[in-house]
């Protein structure tokens, strides 16, 4: 089956909640990249199961799109089924220190809501423009904490096996900016346990974090840090890039941020290929001059030279 036939078969199976050739750029913070062959927005567990059926029947790759704050989508787009959970998983339940948050909930929203209740331990998330689902998959973090610090379990639907399981955090093997979740494994919601604290102190912390971010990170179109820190807590990718004088290095409409050397900005007229070319130049220079091979933190989607995620993921 060619892509066109796979696309048509998926659309026929996904009825009223999927569209063809949806541009992914508006779904990402880079605002770059081409369309997804199929873009599904399931509204119920049943519809998510239909996505699993369509994935298996067509063999198309799948990409869960959260808030797109860690994605660089190729200009040619994504030849598969992109899934958004905005219509399915935007609930939050808080009972005491226990928080159950839908995958589509924005991290800053949850950080503010929990802080206002005097719950501490999630303030770090106020400056991270992702979703709960993306944050579990990436083990997002900052300011000395991360998802792993409060995650108890996650509800995960495996689009290959069809299983829908509450998975203990330990089994997800969260690590610095990564986890064992694979592309076909969808986080539906996460259960966190926070700590009782003081709402005023928590809100001060939020304000400090927001101020720090404004002072140290650029606005505009980017996906945060593009490379994983080679020695977390000890050696930051930004330090290596900075030492080589690469701030401001530019290809086409993309450049290394003058404000933060591990950010690659997309400016007017930029393409995803420009951003990728800047990343590759930086990676090569850093490797040749320091011996550190930087690993992309940004998820590269639809690039012909990037191996698709063939991992089995957490066994469900
Ligand atoms: C200005 C800026 C600052 C940032 N600062 C930080 C920071 O301090 N710390 C940090 O860790 N990150 C940071 N990021 C990166 C990003 O916000 C995080 O990685 C975030 O967790 C990504 O969430 P998302 O919903 O945007 O995921 P997306 O970018 O949409 O997706 C990222 C990955 O997660 C997967 N995914 C998304 N949702 C789900 C789901 N429900 N189930 C399974 N998989 C899913 C995607 O398939 C993809 O593989 C920053 C980004 C920006 C733009």
Question: How would you describe this structure to a colleague?
Answer:
The chain is of the alpha+beta class and 316 residues long. The protein has 3 domains: 3-84, Uridine Diphospho-n-acetylenolpyruvylglucosamine Reductase, domain 2, CATH 3.30.43; 92-202, Uridine Diphospho-n-acetylenolpyruvylglucosamine Reductase, domain 3 (2-Layer Sandwich); 218-301, UDP-N-acetylenolpyruvoylglucosamine reductase, C-terminal domain (Uridine Diphospho-n-acetylenolpyruvylglucosamine Reductase, domain 1), CATH 3.90.78.10. It is built from 8 helices and 18 strands. The chain has helices spanning 3-14, 45-58, 107-116, 132-138, 169-172, 199-216, 237-243, 272-290; strands at 18-23, 35-40, 62-65, 71-73, 78-84, 92-95, 98-102, 119-120, 141-142, 145-146, 151-158, 164-168, 185-193, 195-196, 250-251, 254-256, 264-266, 299-301. The strands form 6 sheets. The chain has a 5-stranded antiparallel sheet with strand order 6-7-13-11-12. A 4-stranded mixed sheet has the order 1-2-5-3, with helices on one face. Strand 9 and strand 10 (145-146) form a beta hairpin. Helix 1 (3-14) packs antiparallel against helix 2 and helix 3 (107-116) runs antiparallel to helix 6 (199-216). The longest helix is centred in the C-terminal third of the chain and has 19 residues, at 272-290. The radius of gyration is 19 Å and the shape is globular. The chain starts with a helix and ends in a 15-residue tail after the last strand. The model has no long low-confidence stretch (mean pLDDT 97). Flavin-adenine dinucleotide binds next to strand 3, helix 4, strand 9 and strand 13.
């Amino acid at each position: 089956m060619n892509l066109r036939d796979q696309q048509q078969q998926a659309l026929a199976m996904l009825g009223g909640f999927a569209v063809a050739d949806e541009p992914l750029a508006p779904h990402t913070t880079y605002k770059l990249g081409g369309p997804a062959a199929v873009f599904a927005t399931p509204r119920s567990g049943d519809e998510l199961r239909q996505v699993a059926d369509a994935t298996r029947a067509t063999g198309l790759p799948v990409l869960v799109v959260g808030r797109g704050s860690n994605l660089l989508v190729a200009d040619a787009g994504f030849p598969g089924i992109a899934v958004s959970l905005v219509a399915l998983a935007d609930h939050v339940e808080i009972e005491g220190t226990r928080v159950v948050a839908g995958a589509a909930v924005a991290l800053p929203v949850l950080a503010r809501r929990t802080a206002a209740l005097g719950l501490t331990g999630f303030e770090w998330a106020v400056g991270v423009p992702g979703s709960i689902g993306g944050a579990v998959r990436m083990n997002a973090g900052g300011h000395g904490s991360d998802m792993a610090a409060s995650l108890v379990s996650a509800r995960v639907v495996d689009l290959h096996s069809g299983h829908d399981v509450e998975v203990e955090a330990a089994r997800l093997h969260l690590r610095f900016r990564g986890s064992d979740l694979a592309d076909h494994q969808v986080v539906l919601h996460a259960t966190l346990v926070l700590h009782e604290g003081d709402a005023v102190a928590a809100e001060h912390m939020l304000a400090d974090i927001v101020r720090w971010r404004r002072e140290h990170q650029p606005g505009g179109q980017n996906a945060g840090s593009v490379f994983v820190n080679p020695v977390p807590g000890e050696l930051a990718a930004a330090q290596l890039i900075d030492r080589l004088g690469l701030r401001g290095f530019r290809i086409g409409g993309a450049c290394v941020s003058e404000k933060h050397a591990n950010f690659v900005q997309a400016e007017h007229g930029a393409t995803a290929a420009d951003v990728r070319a800047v990343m590759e130049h930086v990676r090569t220079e850093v490797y040749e001059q320091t011996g550190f091979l930087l690993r992309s933190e940004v998820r590269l989607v639809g690039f012909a030279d990037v191996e698709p995620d063939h991992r089995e993921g957490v066994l469900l």
